[in-house]
């Protein structure tokens, strides 16, 4: 049903980013809670608290997948070492992007399941259902691994009522 998208983000001008925030997340499942708190604080600062429920669900799924599938089993955060997972939130005037970076080169894989009561295996289905689009791309240069992202369209805010 859902094929992983091996593509970059839709065209977005990096110079037009209204706001951006990121946080490093350690290789512990408690990091999902930290990601939700970070998302809540960030969206509140951006006066977007009304989008929290959908965005938080997607962030939780992306971070959980990065921790579960994007890290080697032996990964431990040593003191002074960069945490292996990073959450980025970026806002343009009409789009919000949540992106999670992990060290794995493996593409995200959706699982086919008819059991919607299962407690795992539906993460990317939820990401696809609650965001407007999602995808992933490998990192290049000094960074290795991949970024899995989800895009949310934001309502257009006009300058006010038009008076003639």
Question: Could you explain the architecture of this structure?
Answer:
The chain has 3 helices and 5 strands. It has 164 residues and is of the alpha+beta class. A hairpin with a 3-residue loop joins strand 2 (85-91) and strand 3 (95-102).
Strand order of the largest sheet: 1-2-3-5-4
User: Helices and strands, in N-to-C order?
Assistant: EHHEEHEE
What is the CA-atom radius of gyration, in angstroms?
Answer: 17 Å
Shape: globular
Separation, N- and C-terminal Cα atoms: 50 Å
What proportion of the residues form beta strands (DSSP E)?
15-25%
What is the helical fraction, as a range of percent? 25-40%
Mean pLDDT: 81
Poorly predicted runs of 5 or more residues: 1-6, 76-80
Content-based structural category: alpha+beta
* Multimeric status of the protein: single chain
Number of helices: 3
Q: How many beta-strand segments?
A: 5
- Major sheet size, sense and barrel closure: 5 strands, antiparallel
